[in-house]
Write a structure and sequence with these properties.
By secondary structure, the protein is α/β, with parallel strands linked by helices. The protein has two domains: about 5-100, Udp-n-acetylmuramoylalanyl-d-glutamate--2,6- Diaminopimelate Ligase, Chain: A, domain 1 (3-Layer(aba) Sandwich); about 110-345, Aldolase class I (TIM Barrel, Alpha-Beta Barrel), CATH 3.20.20. It has helices at about 15-20, 35, 135-145, 165-180, 195-205, 220-230, 235-245, 265-275, 290-295, 295-300, 310-320, and strands at about 5, 10, 20-25, 40, 55-60, 75, 90, 95-100, 110, 155, 185, 210-215, 250-255, 280-285, 325-330, 350-355, 370. The strands form three sheets. The protein has an eight-stranded mixed β-sheet. The longest helix has 14 residues, at about 235-245. The protein is globular and about 70 Å long.
């Protein structure tokens, strides 16, 4: 599991101006001077060119580094050795801290747009807070022009991003302008899209590659509303999906499987196949043991091995209907072999781990692995597939 932020950094000669900016990192000494003034130089063992906004060096290398005297510099703990050229960070000299905002080499870059939400899901991994965090929009807008335009995809999550209103539209417009080849995966509960005027404004941004991931937890409205702890949420969500598709927007339905949802997975698959067959993707997802899940574990946990039949029936029904379907956050050893081809390595690289039992498994490279939080509870049926077995 990678560390994406924390304290323990040592700063020297940092001005308030540098501390207020996001910084793109580089290891190229030949950068044009106008760019040097906006970038942080990653110091290794070679020559250190002058003129950069700041110099970044790992603690284990600081003795060997010939750093420019009196230049802004930050000495990082060695756990940030993964940082590379093109990564974007924000330093907090007043706290001796760093936040890694974007990693160029990673396919898993997601921006938190807000902590506010109009639902209160039992298994929310990012528990909502009623705070004024409008600064997050400004930060994302500041980061977007610094992202490598070859980036395949970035994610936008919350909280509930649609609560930002024009702020979300501003982010999407910036992404369209600076990253026209980069796909955007927006996670939303879908309820705001029941408002036709907002859906039209959203569609009017005309982002060329945008997918909205919306959770639908049951074909039964009372079950869905209970899971999200909001009366009327099922109706708003379905109307939101219909509005988006009517306006030619791409929609993914996301189903988190747990004790409250697994038994009606086949019925939910039939509901989607009959009524929402025009959606672009359906993701059947395992539970992440973090956030509210820890507090509600007794109401949520069920061994994935015990619902493998329902999961397989639902996935195969959706696939036969012609829908694109994936299974996320599950280990191959707990699901039926008939749906292995639908299982994806979906857990972000910075929080994906494997157990000691997995070391010898010949299927490890194809398996989705575990969330780092899985030590709270995991299947009793985890076993390695051995060569020749």
């Amino acid at each position: 599991m990678l560390t994406l932020g924390g304290v323990g950094c040592q700063f020297e000669h940092f001005s308030d101006d540098i501390g207020r900016r996001v910084i793109r990192l580089t290891d190229r000494p030949d950068r044009p001077r106008p760019l040097r003034e906006k970038e942080g130089f990653l110091v290794s063992d070679g020559d250190v060119p002058p003129g950069f906004a700041c110099y970044v060096v790992l603690r284990s290398r600081v003795e060997r580094a010939d750093l420019p005297p009196d230049s802004p510099k930050v000495i990082l703990p060695d756990e940030y050795s993964y940082l590379g050229a093109g990564d974007v960070v924000r330093f907090h000299p007043e706290r001796g801290a760093i936040r890694v905002l974007y990693r160029r080499a990673s396919p898993h870059n997601t921006f938190l747009t807000t902590e506010r939400c109009n639902s209160y899901c039992l298994m929310c991994s990012q528990p909502p807070r009623d705070v004024n965090d409008a600064w997050l929009v400004d930060e994302i807008v500041e980061v977007l022009p610094l992202i490598d335009p070859e980036t395949v995809e970035i994610g936008l999550s919350g909280g509930e991003p649609t609560l930002l209103g024009d702020g979300l539209l501003r982010i999407l417009a910036m992404a369209r302008s600076y990253l026209p080849q980069t796909a955007i995966h927006l996670l939303s509960n879908g309820r705001r899209f029941a408002d036709e005027a907002f859906s039209r404004a959203f569609a009017a941004v005309e982002h060329p590659d945008l997918m909205v991931g919306i959770p639908l937890y049951s074909d039964n409205s009372s079950i869905h509303d209970y899971v999200v702890q909001a009366d009327g949420a099922f109706d708003e969500t379905v109307r939101g999906i219909l509005n988006l598709k009517r306006m030619r927007q791409r929609v993914e339905i996301r189903v988190v499987v747990h004790k409250q949802t697994y038994s009606r997975l086949p019925q939910l698959a039939e509901f989607i196949a009959r009524n929402l067959t025009f959606v672009d993707h359906v993701a059947l997802m395992g539970l992440e043991m973090t956030g509210f899940t820890k507090a509600n574990l007794s109401d949520l946990w069920v061994d994935p091995f015990d619902y493998r039949t329902e999961l397989s029936r639902a996935a195969q029904h959706l696939e036969r209907t012609g829908l694109t379907v994936s299974i996320y956050n599950h280990q191959l050893c707990v699901i039926d072999g008939a749906v292995w081809h639908l299982a994806k390595k979906s857990i972000s690289d910075w929080k994906r781990e494997y157990m000691a039992d997995c070391i010898a498994c010949v299927q490890k490279e194809l398996c989705g692995g575990f969330f780092a939080s899985a030590t709270l509870r995991y299947s009793n049926h985890i076993r390695p597939f051995l060569q020749g077995a």
